[in-house]
Write a structure and sequence with these properties.
Oligomer: single chain
Mean pLDDT: 96
Number of strands: 8
Largest sheet: 8 strands, parallel
Order of helices and strands: EHHEHEHEHHEHEHEHEHH
Structural class: alpha/beta
Helix content: 40-55%
Strand order of the largest sheet: 1-2-3-4-5-6-7-8
């Protein structure tokens, strides 16, 4: 089965109304990310319907680091953190995130302290309730290694659109972190670090994603579930492996990391 460990169905449906029809046609199992009550409610309703079908939807919730640059972020921050704890305690979610650090540009650098506070709170929730974390890390790998002890206590740590090097990925595993590295259309955009990592990392550490609708192929306006077969085919070519066998393995990895 095709798997998408990181996507945003609520945002995708706005630009591609037929997204859910396409997902069912392709038989894609997903982890749907949400960062507000509105999009979580949408994903939750979608998941209830999907479980009657063959391709289930699992839910994650967390405060995206870019959210902290919004003018009203501080007003809603406490409520969103409490909401994350509530969803975790009520077993409504399978993962915390996406969360993490984004230090790309002054707008986000200015919120670094708040990003640390929120991420630490999310880590506590993940560890307390035995949940994996879905990490967004941009220009901030240096923030991750000092947290290795806490991250090693998490059920799993999924790096969405893996931003680091192959050596950094191996170092994270050597630090005792149950880390998984997710790749999407980035491996078709001549991103050399991502290509090398995808080519060389252990097979049981690879995941696939679309980050739909935010990570399109070159020349397209948005990403969608239809990108997954080509992502898998590209991964298979990079690794000199069979695409169908790789699909089976990435589904196993999805299950091990999330379920």
């Amino acid at each position: 089965m095709l798997t998408d460990v990181h996507c945003h169905p609520f945002d995708l449906i706005r630009v591609f109304p037929e997204a859910e029809t396409e997902r069912k046609h392709l038989n894609v199992k997903i982890l749907a990310s949400a960062y507000s009550l509105e999009d979580f409610s949408y994903n939750e309703n979608l998941a209830k319907t999907a479980f009657k079908e063959d391709a289930p939807i699992f839910l994650s919730f967390g405060i995206h680091p870019q959210y902290l640059s919004k003018k009203d972020a501080e007003l809603n921050l406490k409520d969103l953190l409490n909401l994350t704890d509530t969803y975790a305690s009520e077993k409504k979610i399978k993962a915390i995130g996406e969360c993490g650090f984004d230090l790309y540009g002054e707008e986000y650098k200015e919120t670094e302290e708040r990003q640390e506070m929120v991420f630490n709170a999310h880590l506590e929730t993940a560890i307390k309730f035995g949940l994996p974390v879905i990490l967004h890390v941009r220009r901030a790998m240096h923030k991750i290694f000092p947290l290795a002890k806490q991250l090693s206590k998490c059920k799993a740590v999924v790096f969405h659109t893996w931003p680091g090097t192959y050596d950094e990925a191996i170092s994270l595993l050597n630090h005792g972190i149950n880390a998984y590295f997710s790749f999407g259309n980035i491996i078709m955009l001549n991103h050399k670090k991502a290509i090398k990592s995808c080519s060389l990392l252990p097979l049981d550490r690879l995941l696939t994603e679309t980050d739909a609708p935010y990570a399109p192929k070159r020349g397209e306006e948005h990403s969608s579930y239809r990108d997954l077969p080509l992502i898998l085919e590209t991964m298979a070519k990079l690794r000199s492996e069979n695409a169908k066998e790789l699909e089976t393995q990435t589904e196993t990895n999805f299950n091990n990391a999330i379920l």
